[in-house]
Structure formats: structure tokens, C-alpha cells
Design brief:
By secondary structure, the protein is α+β, with helices and mostly antiparallel strands. It is built from 4 helices and 9 strands, in the order βαβαβββββαββα.
């Protein structure tokens, strides 16, 4: 399955995530292809968010050394590729704005929807993730992201923002600003797997 998003990526202290109450499953247009959605928004106050466990410079360096990610020194980035469309990736979990309008995210022509019906074995779907790194005082504050990609691509991409020492990693949440809600990143990716 594919995931299309327009979100902010934040870290949150594990204790806050564990104690966070959950709203009923989403019933808004943020998720178009799963009905009813297994994803329950988290009741988290913005003051419960934490900076990501790496610095702005570390994130830029990791992106620039990844080889397939174009990242400017100001923190703007883009990565794209393509994948064969088959029965395993013919549905898309949309998280963000205007999910039902043509099943594409707003702006630009490069965002092709994942196939809704089987295609021949040569059919490729273009994916792309772009955004901006937002610096904090000592660590990366958050990441603005918009994109459309297969779940394995998202999982690999999000590793960029992990601590070099796993014990220092914090759980991450997606913030959907336009809806005023937070979603556990693992919940989103697991729902789309």
C-alpha cells in the first residue's frame, strides 16, 4: 500500500504517548481508502511535543549523504523514484488535505495516484517526498512533509530522523494542522502495511 501525506513530523516523550487518550477512529476526509479507519487520533497538547533527537545539521548531512535525496543547506529537500504497480500496492492511505478530490494531493502534476485497479507488470507509479527541516534551539524542531510513496520508502526515509543511539529515540507523531489532530506514525504505517 502507498501513503500520501501532508503533515508535520514531531517527536513526543514515550510517557506522553503511552498516556495519551485516543479519539474514536477517524471519520473525516483525511483517510479516504480505509473505512472504518483503524487509526485513532491522539489527544496530545502541543506542549507535549519534543524536538527530534538529531540536530538540523545532522539531518541535512544525512540527507545529502543518502545519495538519492536532494537537500539544500536551508533544509528544503526532495526525494523521488518509481515503483511497479501491482496488486500489493494498488491502494493508497491518504493523510492530509483534499484526500477525496481525484485522489491526488494538491499542487503539481507529478503526483500520480496509486492504481485503483490492476495494471500490467510494466506499469510504474512515480512517488515523491518533499518538505522542509525546521530548526530548533539545539535539535531539529520538526519536519514539514508532503508526499506520496510506498510504505517501505516512508519507513526508510523516516530513519533519517532517528538518533544514532536507539535508546535515545523518541516515538514520532504526524500532526495534521488543518484538522488539529495528531497520529502515531507507527499506527499510520502499520495501517497501510
Amino acid at each position: 500500500m502507498w501513503v500520501g501525506i501532508q503533515v508535520l513530523l514531531h517527536s513526543v516523550e514515550p510517557t506522553i504517548l503511552e498516556k495519551a487518550a485516543r479519539h474514536p477512529a477517524l471519520e473525516i476526509d483525511a483517510i479516504a481508502d480505509l473505512n472504518p479507519s483503524p487509526i485513532q487520533p491522539l489527544k496530545i497538547n502541543a506542549d507535549g511535543l519534543s524536538p527530534l533527537p538529531i540536530t538540523f545539521d545532522q539531518a541535512v548531512n544525512r540527507m545529502q549523504s543518502a545519495g538519492n535525496i536532494y537537500c539544500e543547506g536551508d533544509g528544503s529537500f526532495v526525494v523521488c523514484g518509481n515503483q511497479i504497480a501491482d496488486a500489493k500496492n494498488q491502494h493508497t492511505l491518504w493523510i492530509g488535505r483534499d484526500a477525496k478530490r481525484g485522489k491526488i494531493l494538491p499542487t503539481a502534476d507529478w503526483r500520480f495516484a496509486a492504481p485503483d485497479s490492476p495494471h500490467d507488470s510494466n506499469s510504474k507509479v512515480v512517488w515523491r517526498i518533499e518538505g522542509n527541516l525546521v530548526d530548533g534551539s539545539e535539535h531539529l524542531n520538526h519536519v514539514q512533509m508532503i508526499g506520496f510513496a510506498p510504505v517501505p520508502v516512508w519507513r526508510e526515509f523516516l530513519k533519517i530522523f532517528a538518533s544514532e543511539r536507539a535508546e535515545k529515540d523518541l516515538p514520532c507523531v504526524f500532526q495534521l494542522q488543518q484538522f488539529g489532530i495528531f497520529l502515531d506514525v507507527d499506527d499510520v504505517l502499520n495501517a497501510a502495511s
